[in-house]
Automatic annotation (TrEMBL):
<dbReference type="InterPro" id="IPR011294">
    <property type="entry name" value="3-OHbutyrate_DH"/>
</dbReference>
<feature type="domain" description="Ketoreductase">
    <location>
        <begin position="5"/>
        <end position="177"/>
    </location>
</feature>
<dbReference type="InterPro" id="IPR020904">
    <property type="entry name" value="Sc_DH/Rdtase_CS"/>
</dbReference>
<dbReference type="InterPro" id="IPR057326">
    <property type="entry name" value="KR_dom"/>
</dbReference>
<protein>
    <submittedName>
        <fullName>3-hydroxybutyrate dehydrogenase</fullName>
        <ecNumber>1.1.1.30</ecNumber>
    </submittedName>
</protein>
<dbReference type="InterPro" id="IPR050259">
    <property type="entry name" value="SDR"/>
</dbReference>
<dbReference type="InterPro" id="IPR002347">
    <property type="entry name" value="SDR_fam"/>
</dbReference>
<dbReference type="GO" id="GO:0003858">
    <property type="term" value="F:3-hydroxybutyrate dehydrogenase activity"/>
</dbReference>
<dbReference type="Pfam" id="PF00106">
    <property type="entry name" value="adh_short"/>
</dbReference>
<keyword id="KW-0560">Oxidoreductase</keyword>
<comment type="similarity">
    <text>Belongs to the short-chain dehydrogenases/reductases (SDR) family.</text>
</comment>
<dbReference type="InterPro" id="IPR036291">
    <property type="entry name" value="NAD(P)-bd_dom_sf"/>
</dbReference>
Amino acid sequence: MLKGKTALVTGSTSGIGLGIAQALARQGANIVLNGFGDVDAARSQVLAAGEAAAARVAYHGADMCRVADIEDLMKYSVSQFGRVDILVNNAGIQHVANVEDFPVERWDAVIAVNLTSAFHTCRVALPAMQSANWGRIINVASVHGLVGSAQKSAYVAAKHGIVGLTKVIALENATTGVTCNAICPGWVLTPLVQKQVDAKAAEHGLSDEDAKKLLLREKEPSMQFSTPEELGELVLFFCSPAANNVRGAAWNMDGGWAAQ
Ligand code: NAD
């Protein structure tokens, strides 16, 4: 379905981004990976997912806090595969503290990675998408782009911000073949969330399993984590012809969290 297309997925060495990169590779898209940590493991998982479809995989280690790195990432992607047709803004970090205790540098980092980086990737990716009259921008927001939670000021501000940015980019390109949408997951059991599970277990003296149940019970009526694989399938829908006129949506996959 996506043979001949190139997808850049930021923060794709782990968790949701890795799941999305695998789903896109399975459909034949060439993939540019980005992120920190175990790059080789991520690369082989995405290569394996895309093997039958002969998808190619490249990697760039841009720090999404740095504008020069982001511009270099886009140049590198074009040099590897000719262009970027699908841009998934997924890189994200979290910090949990009340506003009065929130370290200023953590605020700046969360806003830079979770929001400002997407402005820069879109800014540099859009001209080529507009010339080709085809492009898909998918911003990985969060249910926290729709509702708030205590102790997550920077994250909630960044995620509400990226939902707003999504709408504006969708409107600016509404008469073209370039669409922009956001996805809004509830809990997904990735390293980012495992840290919060560990904090709950330590705070309440709970087992890992009971801490997960507590986390889910507080917010997610389905009592189930979504998976990177399910989110990958949602991204494939946005890339499909059926989604040609889905523009500026903030699509939740949150087990009923935002329905309450
Ligand atoms: P994760 O920690 O597993 O993955 C985050 C990825 O971002 C990693 O590849 C990491 O290396 C990369 N990254 C972090 N800082 C970076 C930087 N400065 N430059 C480049 N890459 C950087 O987390 P995840 O849960 O998979 O989160 C992915 C996205 O999904 C985030 O935007 C997050 O806010 C969002 N999200 C997660 C959940 C959840 O429950 N896990 C829910 C809603 C939204």
